[in-house]
Amino acid sequence: MNKTILCIGAGYVGGPTMAVIADNCPDYKVIVVDINADRIAAWQSDKLPIYEPGLDEVVKRARGRNLFFSTDVFGGIKEADIIFVSVHTPTKTFGAGAGKAANLQYWEKTARDIVEHADRDKIVIEKSTLPVRTAEAMHRILQSNDKGLNFEVISNPEFMAEGTAVDDLQNPDRVLIGAMETSSGQKALQAIVDIYKNWVPEEKIKTTNVWSSELSKLVSNAMLAQRISSVNSISALCEKTDANIVEVSGAMGLDSRIGPKFLNASVGFGGSCFKKDILNLVYLCEFYGLPEVASYWEQVVLMNEYQERRFVQKIVDRMFNTVAGKKIALFGFAFKANTGDTRESPAIYISKLLLEEQGQLAIHDPEALDNAAIDLKDVEGDYTFEEDPYEAAKGAHAIAILTEWKHFCDLDFERLYHSMQKPAFIFDGRNILDHKRLHKIGFNVYPLGQKALSHLEK
Ligand code: NAD
Ligand code: UDX
Fold first, then answer.
1. What is the per-residue pLDDT across 107-155, written as a single tens digit (0 to 9) for each?
2. What is the mean pLDDT of residues 423-443?
3. Local structure of residue 107 (DSSP, 8 states)
4. In this predicted model, what pLDDT tens digit does every residue of 150-206 receive, in sequence order?
5. Which CATH class is domain 4-200?
6. Which terminus of the chain has a lower count of CB atoms within 10 Å, N or C?
């Protein structure tokens, strides 16, 4: 074996990232550790703790060969030459910066574990998304050791998206690696470049100073989320003017400076990253005395919340100003298709608002029902979870599409229509269905940012 890589944190990022590294770098031993024993047991089993297309195959190829999952964090620290830290960095819920700043307690704990258990020099890599200048604090904690050890801190943020994690990791747009501009920093940087060189073309491996790398990650997420909030804001204007958001996005996207991706109007962006990272950026701008910059970025989150509320308001308005006692089938609970992850999913907020209106919810999702049950466990109201979309829609007044699962388009809508209460409504919060066909079947159809196709209103 060439070197031993350790990853602390076997979550959505640590697990897939290390599996792809191990798969492509058979000369490295890769150990993934976590304090969550259930999660590690799942990584060792046939039912992995997260659903990602293609992940099972990658894990099966490398596991037991040069990829290992373990709860022995301290043993891993001792053994490793290179340590990726991939623990979660959620929004702080207490004290200074509550609601915006990143909670760095999990991250700091790993730094202290490394100091305590390392017995030789190591390279420590920030894989988690962290506020700019965190490497400075990390370096200080690590260098505070009294064993005379040297630690190099590298920033190597992860850009994979859930649902396409394996493909994104296998064929990344870029790999970003930031290091201190010292000779030991540059040597450490080269050690990390050497790992990625095994499968990523060199022109896609971008090296920068450590602060640029940290900040680029936050800003990349903010820019992506800003595109969605921009389009979602215009979807509201389209509904007032009979312009069509799909046509407007299509026309904008043809400009090569804008590009076609990430312009789909939706019920709002979710996921564990966008909101948290923008709020972190807002906090940093406030911290550095830049209130105008902070409020500019905060609008992206506020517009997202508006879009979620607007969707619920439309449902209530169109269903004769009340959903009390009416069954509504929610199709999709995951924050996007091809994942079972529901963190910050718009479906959570939308469900709560509909339950406050005393709607009866039948929630269907092909991968996310377990997580949905956890998300709603303390929420009062009338809701059930349905594996079968036809059961969910039986006797319902409305179907609301919240996640863009492809197979929703292939459902038998005649059958769904005939099993529902009349008038039957469809609110397509992802603009994925064939609206004209649904209207012909008899549905009253409310897409996003497009003219409604209703039998009730002219
Ligand atoms: P996660 O919550 O799925 O996983 C984090 C894991 O770290 C958990 O399993 C937890 O038990 C473990 N952990 C916490 N403290 C530990 C400790 N002291 N020792 C060992 N294990 C510990 O989080 P995630 O989604 O994988 O995100 C990790 C980081 O990557 C975050 O900073 C996130 O912003 C960033 N990120 C996430 C994504 C994504 O798509 N989820 C993409 C890019 C970047
Ligand atoms: C995001 C970033 O894309 C990724 O680079 C980063 O590493 C982690 O955060 P992720 O949150 O997994 O990835 O998914 P993403 O595809 O970005 O979607 C985020 C949200 O935006 C989802 O709720 C999705 O449905 C929504 N979205 C996306 C839209 O509403 N419209 C779009 O056009 C695209």
1. 999 999 999 999 999 999 999 999 999 999 999 999 999 999 999 999 9
2. 98
3. H
4. 999 999 999 999 999 999 999 999 999 999 999 999 999 999 999 999 999 999 999
5. alpha beta
6. C
- What is the per-residue burial (b if ≥16 Cβ within 10 Å, else e) of 395-406? ebbbbbbbbbbe
Nearest CA to ligand 1 atom 38: 13
Active site residues: 273
The residue whose CA has the least distance to atom 32 of ligand 1 is 128
Location of each CATH 3.40.50.720 domain in the chain: 4-200, 244-458
Pick the CATH number of 244-458 from 3.40.50.720, 3.40.50.620, 3.40.50.2000, 3.40.50.1000: 3.40.50.720
Strands 82-85 vs 4-8: parallel, antiparallel or unpaired: parallel
Ligand closest in space to the Cα of 85:
1
The CA 269 to ligand 2 mean position distance, Å, reads 7
Is residue 402 within 8 A of residue 330, CB to CB? The reply is yes
Distance 440 CA to ligand 1 centre (A): 47
423 preceded by cis ω (within 30°)? yes
Q: Measuring from each residue's beta carbon to the nearest atom of ligand 1, which residues come in under 6 Å?
A: 8-14, 33-36, 39, 73, 86-89, 106, 109-110, 128-129, 158, 160, 162, 272-273
Tell me if 158 CB under 6 Å of ligand 2: yes
Q: Is the dihedral of CA 67, 70, 72, 74 positive or negative?
A: positive
